[in-house]
Design goal:
By secondary structure, the protein is mainly beta. The protein has strands at 6-12, 19-25, 31-36, 43-50, 57-64. It has one domain (3-64). It has no helices and five strands.
Length: 69
């Protein structure tokens, strides 16, 4: 893993609306993962899309654990 593959992504918790920043490793390619909110501890679903051509982060969809992304 290279440091240039790590990207900070800012968003708000879909449960408590707390501002959050997660570090995303784009070297893993597109993937789904779950992270806990640092404020309310609720599980947040992240659908991460990384470009196959450039390897850059294209989109991060976030939602509640019970949502289908």
């Amino acid at each position: 893993m290279h440091d240039d593959a790590l990207v900070n992504h800012d968003f708000h918790c879909p449960y408590c609306d707390a501002p959050l920043t997660f570090v995303i490793d784009t070297s893993q390619g597109s993937h789904d993962t779950w992270e806990d909110c640092h404020q309310c501890c609720a599980p947040i679903q992240l659908h991460i899309i990384v470009s196959l051509v450039t390897g850059e982060l294209e989109t991060v969809l976030t939602g509640r654990d019970d949502e289908v992304l």
